[in-house]
Amino acid sequence: MSLLFRTSGTVAGPEFFLKRTGGGLRATRMPVTVAVIERPDGLVLVDAGWSRRTCAWPERDPGRAKRFFLGLDVKPEDALASQLISLGYAPGDVRHIVATHLHIDHIGGAVDFPLATVHCAAREWSAVPRGPVGGYDLRTLDLPKVERHALAGPAALGFEASHDLFGDGTVLLLDAKGHTRGSVAVAVKLAEGWALHAGDATMFADDFHDDASKPPSLYMRAMAWSVAGQREGFAHLLSAERDHGAKVVPSHDMSVYETLPHLREEAWPCAWTRGKAKARKAPKGA
Fold first, then answer.
1. How many domains are contained in the chain?
2. Is residue 223 part of a domain?
3. How far apart are CA 176 and CA 100, in angstroms?
4. Model pTM?
5. 3-state secondary structure of 51
6. What phi and psi values does residue 193 have, to the nearest 5 degrees?
7. Sequence-separated (6 or more) residues with CB below 8 Å from residue 39
8. Which of 71, 103, 249, 255 is the most exposed place for a label (fewest CB within 10 A)?
9. Using CA atoms, how far apart are residues 150 and 163, in angstroms rounded to an integer?
10. What CA–CA distance (Å, rounded) separates 123 from 66?
11. Average pLDDT per 10 consecutive residues for the chain, totaling 286 residues
């Protein structure tokens, strides 16, 4: 039982606009990172990337203009539902999808997993009716199974509030509001330490490692629900990494994505893997 990562195609934009550290007109190509978590009762996805429809017909959905603006590069096989088949799973194996936030590049693929329950922060769900003004797609409101969570749990991993998704301390939703009003970072308990999918709380690892006095990138400020919240998010992510040893995974940092496990044989073992191994060994020692 383990954790690996895939990207649902790529998006791109000019470096000076996307990076907190600045840059020129050179295009920066970015993954759309999805975590695939294998648990004893099925698969959990953190985000879902683009849908099969978008990956097959991006000129129709999201449309030619938006595809150009996003620098969207997708192929039919980039949809997560198709990638899971190549990994030896079936789309029906996905039981839960945890949304870092509900922008369409993060949750569009949820329609390809009709058996899955989508989990998000209650504050995030309440923002979706703003539609394109808030960066949302109103079709998200048609998802059939959604559970909305108040992040009323204790501080965890350097974040001020949390929600224990399964009640066993292995998957935590952490309050990372800033990019959107209900953004969360998702922490997964590994056999050793934590992995933390940051969503868009940071675009690149350099963002939260950089001088705290610098403002977020032009893109992050343009898209922000709260710029102050983004700055606080950088501090929380830095604490998660430095004080708690978490492996922080931004959604759109290619240099980080390339270091992650992408195949089942490379996957990071999770806490429940260790527990299952101990349970198997117990009868021998009895």
1. 1
2. yes
3. 9
4. 0.93
5. coil
6. 85, -155
7. 1, 95, 270, 272
8. 255
9. 7
10. 26
11. 94 92 87 97 97 97 94 97 96 97 97 97 97 93 97 96 96 97 97 97 92 84 92 95 97 97 96 52 33
